[in-house]
Specification:
9% strand, 41% helix, 10 helices, alpha/beta
């Protein structure tokens, strides 16, 4: 077996209590009592999806709303996936894991605040994520991305606080097992479609690794750069699926991740390895 985790490092599942709360909220939207669950069989799927959306919005919306995810029930999912350690059951399963530079733009570019966020509003939003680390973290992001507006800076911090930070934690715990290796990637290439508004959004890696830019040109465009990424990434994913090691002639040597070097394959027009590419971000988010 091999495992590939793309922009979704699930360190924990959800508790039975949280799952019950979510289920009850959705049932309330549908007007169904928990003692009459058979009625769900007769409700159109779209009505259920609408109820989920309504219940999520009532709970705060988006990532702040209801969590619908695998439940740590002690049976089907006996423990949290990667908390507090990597699971023993997958000790010998190699992992390929990574994230994209601007994960959250695909969710937020249509939000009313996108494009008009002020510096003060940015600080307030970031404070809800990292608390007293806000000033230090904002300085790092302004140094890394001096051309980013407050809206893009917030998106980058929000995405990295979830996808990057979680990927690092998972990789550290996997490496600490001294079992099968873990390899990290980081997609930084920016798509030119829609005047480049999305930059490097969530899901941008999917057409490249599946070698189907032809079917996803609306997201990737059909440039020579996109084709280069398609070749690099699909070749690496195929190699990993075959052998548990992503190394192949399309990319330079790709070392396994460890906490000494923190080697990451950065995918852009030309793939290259960087040790600890977001070192300052990692350090601040980890409280070092």
């Amino acid at each position: 077996h091999r495992a590939i985790i793309q922009s979704g490092p699930a360190l924990t599942g959800i508790s039975a209590r949280s799952a019950t709360k979510a289920a009850n909220a959705i049932l309330t939207e549908l007007g169904i009592d928990k003692d009459n669950l058979d009625l769900l069989q007769h409700i159109p799927a779209q009505k259920i999806l609408d109820a989920v959306q309504s219940a999520t919005l009532r709970a705060g919306g988006g990532f702040a709303g209801l969590r619908l995810a695998p439940v740590v029930d002690g049976d089907v999912l006996p423990r949290d996936p990667f908390t507090p350690t990597a699971p023993e059951v997958s000790r010998n399963v190699p992992i390929l894991i990574g994230w994209n530079k601007d994960e959250m733009t695909i969710f937020n570019t249509s939000a009313p605040w996108f494009g008009s966020l002020t510096d003060d509003q940015l600080s307030s939003r970031v404070e809800t994520i990292v608390g007293d680390k806000t000033v230090a973290l904002l300085k790092v992001y302004r140094d890394m991305y001096p051309d980013y507006s407050p809206s893009y800076t917030f998106n980058a911090i929000l995405g990295d606080s979830r996808m990057f930070s979680g990927s690092v934690t998972l990789s550290e715990r996997k490496a600490a097992q001294h079992g099968a290796p873990v390899y990290q990637y980081y997609l930084t290439w920016e798509t030119p479609v829609a005047d480049g508004v999305l930059k490097s959004p969530h899901t941008l890696d999917i057409p490249f690794m599946f070698n189907n830019v032809d079917l996803a040109a609306a997201l990737t465009g059909d440039s020579a750069e996109a084709r280069s990424l398609e070749h690099q990434m699909s070749s690496s994913w195929i190699a990993f699926a075959r052998t548990g090691n992503p190394n192949n002639p399309a990319v330079p040597n790709w070392p396994a991740y460890d906490t000494r070097h923190r080697a990451v394959m950065v995918f852009n027009v030309e793939a290259h390895v960087v040790n600890d590419p977001l070192a300052r971000v990692r350090s601040i988010l980890a409280g070092e």
